[in-house]
Amino acid sequence: MDHARAAISNWFSGEPMSYTRFSIARQMDGDNSHVEMNLSADDEEGGEMGRPEHMHASAPPRWRISKNLCFLIIAAVLLLLIGFLMGYLSYRGRWQKASRCVDGSGKCEMTPTTSYLMDDNDESKDEEVPRPPVFYWPKLRELLSKELSATDLEGNLRHREGKNSVEAGQSNDESTASYIHEQFTSFFLDEVWNDEHYIKLQVNGSSKNEVSIQGNNEEILESTDVYVAYSKIGSVTGKPVYVNYGLKADFQMIQNQDISLNGCIVIFRAGKITLAEKVANAKEAGAVGALMYLDPYDYKNTKGLVPFGHAHLGTGDPFTPGFPSFNHTQFPPVESSGLPQIAVQTVSSNTVAQLFRRMDGRDCFQEWKSDLLECKVMPRSNMTVKLTVNNIMVDRKILNIFGAVKGIEEPDRYVVIGAQRDSWGPGAAKAGVGTAILLELARVISDIVKNEGYKPRRSIVFASWSAGEYGAVGATEWLEGYTTTLHAKAFTYINLDAAVLGSKHMKISASPLLYTLLERTMNGVADPAKDSGSLYDRVGSDWVKTVVPLGLDNAAFPFLAYSGIPVVSFGFWNKDEEYPFLGTTEDTVENLKKIDNLYALMRAAAEVAGQIALRLTHDHELFLDFGRYSEELLAYQEKILPYYQVVKAQGLTLNWLFFARGDFQRATDVLRRDIANSDRENRIIRRALNDRIMKVEYDFLSPYLSPKDVPFRHIFFGKGSHTLQSLLENLQLLQTSVDSVDMKMLKEQLALATWTIKGAANALAGDIWDIDNEL
């Protein structure tokens, strides 16, 4: 550059211009004019050549001064251009060298220089600062598949062997928690920590629970240590009535036969819906007690087996509803409205067969198929059954174990992968499989980060929950403890519980936001049961129609319905045959290994979960398909539309509800346009757009209800009169029986649904000054 300056100087004036600072002061003494020049700091002090402090020279004519000034200006401009070009070429060369793929494998080094942050005297200022490598998605997916090991999964599951019970808060649960904590630490996760909760649980007492037939001499049919948590404690008597699966339709069928259920003890078989929902239906029908069994028609080879269960129609600790059960918290004297208030017990199919043999009333309905002989609905007129429940309440401390791989750009945004750890019996299928997959994913993803140099943009949290058997207590208490922040930080929950219960089919429950990602993931994971093809081929192109609604017994349910966090829960099963040992003392590793290709299926489940987690933390834009909810809303509109005239006859209209749906559709279009027109490399803009995507699920929680009184506020997946399903049921009732409809409640339902959808549309559209007046 010095040579260039000298050449340009000589070119224009023939004399070098080496001054670094100067000023021109014209002095008019007669005909003589002088120019005073102040030299650089070195020259002011005499300089290296011993120049005087001031130098005087005769001023040239006026035209010469103007000409020199022009030359100086042109020279300065040229110097700036040359400097810029040289700097650009130098930076471009370094950038091309830095961004060149190392070995053509898909891993590229991005190492722009940061010399402006260094000291000028630093000898290493010209060295390139190493940056984390950028992984293209195909390479990352390949690494995950390569690292996952069926052998390691088998080793993880083997830790479940020899344990008769891993009951929450007991020694086996605590030792398993310590083992998981040690494993997370050995994987060198960025953070490993415990979360303590102090909860109330109902467990079996010192005396066994009994079912007997009353008469001249009481005959005990069953006496067992197996119990149903949160049952009413004490003894009740009543006539036995069989109600199939305990569905609302089953109870309605009984009542249509003019059979009263008041004061009865109902009998139903497992399946279709959760035990808690069956018990709630029984209570509503007027029953005082309930018995549930495993019917051989649905559960093969289960004679004599008695399943555990809980009867709380909700999740979390039912004695601290809406409050996190942290230590030293003062809880108000309240309890969940989901507690059954009737006696509940599970029994074996052998005991139910004995009851049927003593019941000479009406035979079971033809559609109520059962493999038990002499299936009866009603007993003899003088036959009564006595149910005695001796459960007790206890206070216990439980631990949730967490480990985290922190993101490099947005560490405060995370996907959570979780699995239940506790079980009443050995729990190989119920909790062992999920825990084994959780540990394997933590190991593999940590290895990819530590050994391969991959850095996720967002964080991945691995969670091991306790007290899942009692209704996702550990997970729910954690959500309640951080309810004000989690919805803005956790953007997906992946549930690993009971991931392998068979080998023929796949069962999927998920938020619509994850349908697209789940479909692409299954399309990229090989089916372990076939030589060729993917899991997508197994579920079919119309798999969305077979999505199973989340039940209260699924740990993902409170994440979605309570906290508004998108979830996915999936697993292998046999559609025509339930896994017979789930929730029993026979849920052992030995029985689980009877499933064909067990460890290959576990590996496939791990690959699906791992790909979802990595994809959500890899891409610039969150891979959540917010447009899917437009389709869900349209589907509900089509179901509601036939009742338009019926509603209009009552002086109401469905137009505002339909307008809100249209607003949401337009809001999704606005967000798509904003994403398409945005600079994806701009972190501030990208984060703002991802914020809008993250809020979609949360905005479908009705803001007009108290989470303490109505915890599951989601209008699609929640529980209560605020849901779209409840609105649809009320409209159906309006068409068949106008007098039985509470019109005030119907108006409230329409208002709540309309403004919840409208609010979701406004939030999706962006800032209030960007919201189109049409919305």
Can you describe what's shown?
The chain is of the alpha/beta class and 775 residues long. It has four domains: 2-99, no CATH class; 164-197 and 396-618, Zn peptidases (Aminopeptidase), CATH 3.40.630.10; 209-390, Glucose Oxidase, domain 1 (3-Layer(bba) Sandwich), CATH 3.50.30; 628-765, Transferrin receptor-like, dimerisation domain (Transcription Elongation Factor S-II, Chain A, Up-down Bundle), CATH 1.20.930.40. Helices cover 38% and strands 16% of the residues. It has 23 helices and 21 strands. Helix 4 (137-147) runs antiparallel to helix 17, helix 18 (628-640) runs antiparallel to helix 20 and helix 20 packs parallel to helix 23. The radius of gyration is 36 Å and the shape is globular. Mean pLDDT is 84; it is low at 1-65 and 91-130. The chain crosses the membrane at residues 69-91.
